[in-house]
Amino acid sequence: MYKRQVKIIQSLKSDEIKLKLLETIQSEKNRLKIIQSFQDDNIKMRKINTITDEKEKIKIIQGLQSDDNKIFMLQYIKEEINRVIIIKGIQDDNIKLELLDDIKSELNKIQIIISMQDENKRLKAIGSLSNEENIIFVVSKFKNEEIKLRAIKKINEKIYESYKELLIFNKEMRLGKNRKTRHKYKMLGLPKNMTIGMEIEAEGEYGELLPERIGYWNVKQETSLDSGKECTSPIMYDTDTYIYQIYKINEILSNMEMKITQKCAGHVHIGADYIKTEEGFKELLELWGNSEEIYYLISNKQGELPREGIKEYATPISGMFEKCYFTKNQTDCFIEDAKAKQSNRYKSLNLLNVNNEKNTIEFRLSNGTLDGNTWIE
Fold first, then answer.
1. What backbone torsions phi and psi does residue 48 show, to the nearest 5 degrees?
2. Cα–Cα 20 to 30 A to 170, which of 45, 103, 217, 363?
3. Which residues of 234-262 are buried (b: 16+ CB within 10 A; e: fewer)?
4. What span, in angstroms and rounded, lies between the C-alpha atoms of 33 and 261?
């Protein structure tokens, strides 16, 4: 009955009638719903102090139409985090900039700064932050690369120069100016019709500043790492222009002070369409199973031991596929059976992408590296 009564009062168009009926409602929860439904800010502001719960008061203040009224009501909110919620809802970025001085916690300041629509105002606002990690986080949210570059210059001159080089590379890729490599290797020595791909993992606080794309490569958060990023190549072929990209991406990540740790891996993909028959997959797994221990030893730079997490993220598959059946009269029987036995992608050789959208065979043995020569080798 009370719920229906409250809904009826909420639906009324006249604030004056609502105001009279409000006095008949005892429940604070129901009073809150009615106060929120008032059209007139002044009535809401008069009645807000009849609500005792500060979190509920915020809901009313957030619903005020005027920024000036929201600012006026801040004086009645004691908890800083609750004031931040109200400030974030203010439309005028200049007002947000002024109110930042009254906020003590940097984490709370960050919330307000990120809520600003005008990135030039955000650029001014980062001057209120002292912790570099917090500044980097805010700057990482900039969409305008020109303003972002100006912000990076305030953080670190070397990273600023490196980021400029990154933007030049991106522009070259957009314009199709794919340079030829002048490094040690010009080619991989693979068949022309074999497609390849790479996933580079690295850690570093400035990784937060990396854009979502470097050239044709995708950049995303790598949750298994501390401040980690994963850079994924496009589908590549064994050509000079793609070899140049491999070197350039590693150079950019190094210049952005990204590091390789024991957690970082290097994954290599080969297009599964290179193998035309089930017999070919069967032979691949037989060869792999017979020599897997050797592959673990030779998949990294000379003298480098496999990383600590290799048993967890690239476990051996030897012996796993002996019982996979092979029937010539049915299509894809062997490979689908092998995928079912694999169960998850954390194997030295991962077949789960075969016959799906990616359609690749993934090799997960290698340690992470930012050395272009090592990647190619």
1. -65, -35
2. 363
3. eebbbeeebbbbbbbbbbbbbbbebebbe
4. 54
Could you give the CA distance from residue 308 to residue 262 in angstroms, rounded to a whole number? Answer: 6
Nearest to 374 by CA among 279, 264, 276, 225: 264
Instruction: Please give the Cα distance from 298 to 315 (Å, whole number).
Output: 16
Please enumerate, as own/partner, the contacts of 52-58 that have beta carbons within 8 Å and a separation of 24 or more: 52/28, 53/28, 54/78, 54/79, 54/82, 55/82, 56/28, 56/32, 58/82, 58/85, 58/86
Spatial distance between the Cα atoms of 367 and 377, rounded to a whole number of angstroms: 13
Non-local (6+) Cβ contacts of 151 within 8 A are 123, 126, 139, 142
Mean pLDDT computed over every residue of the chain: 91
Contacts of 89 (CB under 8 A, 6+ apart): 62, 70
Asked if 269 and 360 touch (Cβ cutoff 8 Å), the reply is: yes
User: What would the pLDDT profile of 311-348 be if each residue is shown by its tens digit?
Assistant: 889 999 887 876 665 544 455 578 888 888 888 999 99
Whole-prediction pTM = 0.83
* Confidence class for position 154, pLDDT limits 50, 70, 90: very high
What three-state secondary structure class fits 311?
A: helix
Residue 146 contacts by C-beta under 8 Å, 6 or more apart in sequence? none
- List pLDDT tens digits, range 64-111: 999 999 999 999 899 999 999 999 999 999 999 999 999 999 999 999
Q: What is the per-residue pLDDT for 180?
A: 79
Tokens of 279: 């017999």
Percentage above 70 pLDDT, the chain: 97
> What is the amino acid identity at position 35?
I
